[in-house]
Design goal:
Helix content is 57%, strand content 11%. The protein contains ten helices and five strands; from the N terminus they run βαβαααβαβαααβαα. A five-stranded parallel β-sheet has the order 2-3-1-4-5. The chain is globular. It binds BIS(adenosine)-5'-pentaphosphate (AP5) and magnesium ion. BIS(adenosine)-5'-pentaphosphate (AP5) binds at residues 7, 9-15, 31-32, 35, 52-53, 56-59, 64, 86-89, 93, 124-125, 128, 136, 145, 171, 174-175, 178. Magnesium ion binds next to helix 1.
Length: 216
Amino acid sequence: MRIVMIGPPGSGKGTQGALIAGHFDIPRIVIGDLLRDHVARRTDLGRAVDGHLAKGELVPDEIMLCIVRQALIAAKAAGRGYVFDGVPRTMAQARAGYKIAVELGMAATVAVHLMADDSELTRRLLDRAALEHRSDDNAEVIRDRLEIYRQVTQPIIAWYAGRGILVSVDAMRPVEEVSSEILAALESMRPPASQSRARARRPVDLSGLVAQCGQA
Ligand code: AP5
Ligand code: MG
C-alpha cells in the first residue's frame, strides 16, 4: 500500500502513521523527523531548513521535491510501499510530487486525512512541548502552523477527493479509536496480492541520500 498522511499539526500524522506502518509492515517516511535530524547534524540541508522549521514556515518546494524524489526512489528499491508523513503541503508539491511518483510507478493509493479542531490541536502540541523540545511547539508558532495549514495545505484535500483516494477520519477521538477506524478502512482497500506475497524487508534509509537537497 502507498499511503499519504495529511492533516494539521498535532492531528496525529506521526502517531497514526507509525501504527499503520507497523500493521502493514511498510516503511514510514517522516519528513519532519528527517528535517529535524538534518538540523541536529548541521548538514547543508539542516542549515537550509533550520530557520523555516523554527518559525513554523514551510520549507521551499524545490527542496521538498528533491527529498520526495529521493524518498520515492528509496521506497521503490525497498519494494513494500510507504507511509508518507508530511508531504504534500502545497498544491505545487501535490502536483509535482504526483508527477514524480507516476514516473516511478509509486503514486499514492490512499490519502488518510485526519480532522481535528484548532483548540484540541493546540492543547496536544502544548502538552507535547512540556515533554519534548521541538523548536516549533510554542503558542505563537503553533498558531502560525495552524494558519498555514488552513490557508495553504487544506486545498489539497479536495484534490485527493477528486482522485478518489481520500479517507477522512475524525481525529478528535482517542488514539485507539482513530487507528481502528483507519485500519479497518485500509484493510478494505488493501490490494489482494499484498496479503500473500512474501516481501524482502529492506528499510528506507534517507539519512545521507537527501543531504544534497539543501544545496542551492
Ligand atoms: P512536521 O514535523 O510534519 O509537523 P506538523 O505537521 O506540524 O505536525 P506534528 O508532527 O506536530 O503533528 P502530527 O500530526 O504528526 O501529530 P503527532 O502524531 O505528533 O513538520 C514540521 C515542519 O517541517 C513544518 O512546519 C515545516 O517547516 C517543515 N515541513 C515538513 N513537511 C514539509 C513540506 N511538505 N513542505 C514544506 N515544509 C515542510 O501528535 C501530536 C501530539 O498529540 C503527540 O504528543 C501525540 O501523542 C498526541 N496525540 C496524537 N493523536 C492523539 C489523539 N487521538 N488524542 C490525544 N492525543 C493525541
Ligand atoms: Mg509529526
